[in-house]
């Protein structure tokens, strides 16, 4: 094999590697956008968990638990004498929450989360009794019931207590049955709208171009977030058409430069678009130390005084020498953070330095503090 052939083969391998890298960076439309109107709906309900092993609500402190028990027994034909004081330990009042997925049909089962409302110690081993789950419009969309699974454990004795994970929240897998459907107008109208997860003009334009390559003349960008697509009218043809569109891959536009700072923990997260201008950063620590020593003051003989304790305090203020860091234009923020860490900047100092760089116009990124 000649040298020219070897060079051509090497170039082919390089191009193939670049094509694979580009394909790996591509994302599907279903990962970048959602179809307008296709959404989840939150459900909520109030119920009781029974069968607890003495870890339920203290009914003297949670009167709503007692009232719920009385109402439930009354609905079942059990009437308690007036003034009856219930002292129960095996019942807990809970809030039941669930998410109703789009296109859910009657009879389908969904998971529910059960959270204690009172002072129950644990929901482990309990059973959620029949609980209606309502939507924001007040209508009942599902009915929940089942055994509560709590992924935790706890033990107490001799004044000591050990708890692993959270015992006052549990989950019932498939514990709710859908009773009412939420209509999704996917098959109505001439157009279907895609909403980008993050508004961006560049990504919207690339998405329009990708869809039009697959189906020419069907996609139009309404703004930086929404794309209008002309779709077939029939429901079967529309579902097939949307299935093809969601699998189209495209390279999203590069996001705006942003730095996220968690002021509580000192965490700093940045994206690859962050760049810096030419600047100089000085960092120094100011240390204040107070040392106290106790001594005994003993009076002279025949002085008539009393022995007393004396506290001697020494206050010292020390400022470490500040290190001047020169940042070249175009340097990445990662280089700056690495240099600041090298000169001893702690996370709180790093937050202050980044804020000062942003104020000075040296940090070419949006600074967001959470």
From TrEMBL:
Protein name listed in UniProt: Flagellar P-ring protein
Keyword Amino-acid biosynthesis: no
GO MF terms, alphabetically ordered: structural molecule activity
UniProt keywords, alphabetically: Bacterial flagellum, Cell projection, Cilium, Flagellum, Signal
Pfam families membership: FlgI (PF02119)
Entry function: Assembles around the rod to form the L-ring and probably protects the motor/basal body from shearing forces during rotation.
UniProt subunit comment: The basal body constitutes a major portion of the flagellar organelle and consists of four rings (L,P,S, and M) mounted on a central rod.
GO biological process: bacterial-type flagellum-dependent cell motility
Family note: Belongs to the FlgI family.
Location(s), subcellular: Bacterial flagellum basal body
Gene: flgI
Cellular component terms (Gene Ontology): bacterial-type flagellum basal body, distal rod, P ring; outer membrane-bounded periplasmic space
Main subcellular localisation: other
């Amino acid at each position: 094999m000649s040298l020219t052939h070897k060079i051509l083969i090497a170039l082919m391998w390089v191009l193939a590697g670049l094509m694979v890298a580009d394909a790996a960076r591509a994302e599907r439309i279903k990962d970048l956008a959602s179809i307008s109107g296709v959404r989840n709906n939150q459900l909520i309900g109030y119920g009781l968990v029974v069968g607890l092993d003495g870890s339920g609500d203290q009914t003297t402190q949670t009167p709503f638990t007692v009232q719920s028990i009385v109402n439930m027994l009354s609905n079942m034909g059990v009437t308690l004498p007036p003034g009856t004081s219930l002292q129960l330990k095996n019942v807990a009042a809970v809030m039941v929450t669930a998410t109703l997925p789009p296109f859910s049909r009657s009879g389908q089962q969904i998971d529910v989360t059960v959270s204690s409302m009172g002072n129950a110690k644990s929901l482990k081993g309990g059973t959620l009794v029949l609980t209606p789950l309502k939507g924001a419009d007040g209508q009942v969309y599902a009915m929940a019931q089942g055994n509560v699974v709590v992924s935790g454990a706890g033990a107490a004795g001799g004044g000591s207590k050990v708890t692993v994970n959270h015992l006052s929240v549990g989950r019932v897998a498939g514990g709710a049955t859908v009773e009412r459907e939420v209509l999704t107008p996917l098959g109505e109208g001439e157009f279907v709208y895609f909403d980008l997860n993050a508004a961006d003009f560049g990504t919207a334009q690339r998405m329009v171009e990708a869809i039009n390559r697959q189906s020419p003349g069907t996609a139009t960008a309404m703004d930086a977030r929404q794309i209008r697509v002309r779709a077939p009218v029939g429901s079967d043809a529309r579902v097939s058409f949307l299935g093809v569109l969601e699998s189209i891959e495209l390279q999203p536009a590069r996001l705006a430069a942003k730095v996220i700072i968690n002021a509580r923990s000192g965490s700093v997260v940045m994206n690859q678009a962050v760049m810096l201008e030419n600047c100089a950063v000085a960092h120094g620590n100011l240390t204040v130390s107070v040392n106290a020593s106790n001594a005994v003051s003993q009076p002279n003989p025949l002085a008539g005084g009393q022995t007393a304790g004396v506290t001697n305090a020494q206050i010292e203020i020390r400022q470490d020498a500040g290190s001047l860091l020169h940042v070249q234009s175009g340097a990445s923020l990662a280089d700056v953070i690495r240099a600041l860490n090298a000169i001893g900047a702690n996370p709180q100092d790093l937050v202050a330095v980044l804020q000062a760089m942003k104020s000075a116009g040296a940090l070419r990124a949006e600074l967001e503090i959470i």
